[in-house]
Amino acid sequence: MIGTWINVGAVLLGSFIGILVGRKIPEPITRTAMVGTGLVTFVLGTKLALGSEQTLVLLLALLLGGGLGTWLRIEDRLEQLGDASERLFPASMRGRLTQGFVAATLLFCVGPMAILGAIRDGVYGDWQVLGLKSIMDGMMSIGFVAALGPGVALSAASLLVYQGGISLAAHWLIAPTAGAALAPSLALTEFSAAGGAVLVALSFKLLGIRDLKIGNLLPALALAPLFAYLYGLLA
After folding, report:
1. Where in the sequence is the domain holding 174, given as residue range(s)?
2. Measured distance CA(202)–CA(83) in Å, rounded
3. What is the total count of domains within the chain?
4. pLDDT by residue (tens digit) across 174-221?
């Protein structure tokens, strides 16, 4: 879990810098930071989504996953968690904590680097992937805090649970072959594509194009590799 701890530290450090610097940044620059963050999120999400090898798998994962997430009211529950967390902060810092927490959690936890890096860290003790991700997340935290407020720092807890949980599960459940590398698979490819689609939806929200309930799409990340596996059995 060394990589996860580094990632958590980078997000907290970037958030702290963003809080200090953010107070001195004029509103027009803050809005520009939001647009820039939204554009980068869109580019990254599009790149991942276009990597899908089976569009039908991606479509089914998003449709069924979105339906399941809506039924479970995942977005509402994430917002409730963010609202509850606001009480831990002084009144002067409240307001946009929920938006920052949800947006940063989705951005930092969705994507191939999070899951692949966590697996490699847990199985091989190789945290280089998460080390690179930490640099990216730390830099993005600064801009995210300036645009969305200090709620971004709360996403460090999500990282610890999500990536740390994957690393621990991989450490105990996966028995690696000596010297073997994790080979790309259709399941991981479609997981990455589904994550990219969720990031694209997140970018629409950040850019003010449409206020989508992004959290409700999260079950698609679990269904995409499952459907890819079933497709591989039938093909």
Report:
1. 2-234
2. 20
3. 1
4. 544 434 444 457 787 888 888 888 888 888 887 888 878 888 888 998
